[in-house]
Input
Amino acid sequence: MGLAIGIVGATGAVGQKIIEVIMERNLPISELRLFASEKSAGKTVKLDKYNKEVTVELLTEEVMKEKYDYLLFSAGGSISEKYAPIAAEAGNMVIDNSSHFRMNKDIPLVIPEVNSHVLKGYKGIVSNPNCSTIQMIVAIAPLYRKYGINRIVVSTYQAVSGSGYKAIEELQNQLRDKEYPNKVYTRKIAGNCIPHIDIFNENGFTKEELKMVYETHKILEDDTIEVNPTAVRIPVFYGHSESIYLELKEEVNINEIKKTLEESKGVIVEDDPKINRYPTPIEVENTDFTYVGRIRKDLYNPKGLSLWVVADNLRKGAATNAVQIVEAMENIKMEG
Ligand SMILES: NC(=O)c1ccc[n+]([C@@H]2O[C@H](COP(=O)([O-])OP(=O)(O)OC[C@H]3O[C@@H](n4cnc5c(N)ncnc54)[C@H](OP(=O)(O)O)[C@@H]3O)[C@@H](O)[C@H]2O)c1
Output
């Protein structure tokens, strides 16, 4: 018996990746239904693996009340706000990529490698964390567990695919035509970098930056960690990069840190300056791991550590993490 799965926002950048990841990971499927707005309803999506086409359906309250094993949402916060509770009320498990429910204390915020224990016995809506938070936490959680962390200073270098398919088209068009106007961003993105992701808060941080602060606290269940992020959009199509500075609670031993990271779930260490080995977005595209390089001890603070962390934002930062939550829930069910 397979799983009945529905994808809300199936025609978007994340939705398309979810379909790809489900096929690749051989998730046992009995039924796959795809939902979007009127703009895409009626279009067909090819599932090469099954030699089959699925017609995109219009998202309505009625279809959300039907029975599914899992509904994966990636259609934006307002769609999740309206439709996810209807689906959950009907007894469906919902995995939501939007930020809408993430800070709700009754809703688990899950990175399966880090905190799948919170899914035990749970039914309802589960939130997928922010893409930049996911890759940062996959890399630092093992260090947090072993040494403790006082402070995180992180700067992100985020790909345009993080803003959806319209942003991918905007960069493509601006690379072809210098005069192509900016619609998605406040500035031209081609040849530029923009230190502004999501809206500004009164304290000067953007909402994207504050997500990294509060989601870190929720996932690691520790709000004493001081997190200071700067989130920047750069003209890369796929893959977010992060320069992360950690102040641990103990003195840094670089060999031990590398060994800990090498043994960590979901992490691949790519670090050898002698042969220019470090991860970059192009190299990690279409992979499900979080890559860590440039691992080095601070020149002044014996507890200070710098890392360069790269992952595919549409895969580990969204689609793969959501599918891994389905897999984790199924494993929990099997373990009884
Ligand atoms: N991109 C990332 O790296 C990333 C990472 C983590 C989380 N997320 C989150 O995932 C969500 C989707 O992001 P995305 O990048 O995939 O956006 P996107 O490329 O713009 O896709 C949006 C999807 O939502 C659908 N949609 C829009 N309005 C709808 C409506 N009224 N009813 C039904 N469907 C509707 C669109 O369908 P149509 O084809 O009909 O327009 C499309 O399938 C957002 O909440 C985003 O914050 C994105």
The domain at 3-128+318-335 is CATH 3.40.50.720 (Rossmann fold). The chain has ten helices and 14 strands. Residues 9-15, 36-37, 39-40, 59, 74-77, 79, 97-98, 131, 161-162, 164-165, 313-314, 317-318 surround NAP (CB under 6 Å). The two ends are 17 Å apart (CA to CA).
